[in-house]
Amino acid sequence: MSKTLFPRTLSIAPMLDWTDRHYRHMARQITRHTWLYTEMIHAGAVVHGDPQRFLAKHECENPVALQLGGSDPELLAKAAKIATQFDYDEINLNCGCPSPRVQKGAFGACLMGDVDLVAGCLNAMQNAAPDCEITVKHRIGIDKQSEYQVVADFVGTLREKTACRTFIVHARNAWLDGLSPKENREIPPLKYDFVYQLKRDFADLNIIINGGIKTNDEIAQHLQHVDGVMVGREAYHNPMLMRDWDRQFYGDTLPEIRLDELVARLHTYASQQIQLNQGTTLRHMARHYLGLTHGLQGAKIWRRMLSDADLLKTNRADLILQAWQQVQNDIQTA
Ligand SMILES: Cc1cc2nc3c(=O)[nH]c(=O)nc-3n(C[C@H](O)[C@H](O)[C@H](O)COP(=O)(O)O)c2cc1C
Prior knowledge:
Residues 12-315 form the DUS-like FMN-binding domain. By secondary structure, this protein is α/β, with parallel strands linked by helices. It has helices spanning 21-30, 43-48, 51-55, 73-83, 100-104, 115-128, 148-161, 192-201, 216-222, 233-237, 245-250, 259-276, 282-286, 299-306, 309-313, 318-333, and strands at 10-12, 36-42, 64-69, 90-95, 133-138, 166-170, 206-210, 228-231. It has 2 domains: 10-250, Alpha-Beta Barrel (TIM Barrel), CATH 3.20.20.70; 259-333, Four Helix Bundle (Hemerythrin (Met), subunit A) (Up-down Bundle), CATH 1.20.120. The protein is globular.
């Protein structure tokens, strides 16, 4: 069985192009207990492509979940089996992505319209990876479905027909027509009470709430009603939000990481990655570090230096330390 020690009280959402292994490495320096999720990776890419390229991760990342996209049970099973060689603690099926490209492939959010197919996918994945927890991330409905019963039936059916016991619920509908993926994260209204009701109706399930959650106070509030909170955009744009989480939500007693210590660790990591000479450049990593000084004096200089194309071209990890020095200078002269 999974060797994971911590519950999913908190998790960082899967975000395409954002939660790659470099972001996850950084997040893990800030919080030891929070669950991390990969970007969605299509099962076909894992099966027909180079699994090492798509699934390799840093050993520090656990607890970490792989999110797969797809709707072909056989392909998903093959991908899940391959993933068992990479030490993921969970494999999650995406039933929430509304992008037109994903719809064309008939997976993501449109899977909510075919719960039996979802059950088939989850069962196939579970059979292929019997020691790994298989979970699902979904919305509360698609298009104009507005009844609580829609999501209750979806969850209830999966509870009955599969071994899935963890449901990550983005608390808004996916509108499959007419909205961009970005708009689909903003326009359909959030209905947190639907997610709370799921927990009341299915007390034995692990219900994780997601969508629009930005502060520790909001997290604490949601935890009164559900088992866990998943945070996406805010944890990306303001990663130091995670600094308090181990102590506040997991009862850890170790001190929070200081920003200067984190910068030093990121510098070491970036140096090592560049030295490996496997195609990772400073730009691949530094783009995830831009939000670290969010709200601080010197934030502008930090962002400017770490996103300057000419400076990044030198591909020297020392740029991270130089940018940090400039932040210090800015604070001193303020
Ligand atoms: C850039 C970006 C990429 C995303 N990619 C994925 C993805 O690959 N899989 C997924 O399930 N959700 C994806 N999402 C949705 C998030 O996981 C999350 O459900 C959504 O952002 C709402 O949470 P938040 O308000 O805390 O950001 C993405 C969101 C963003 C902003």
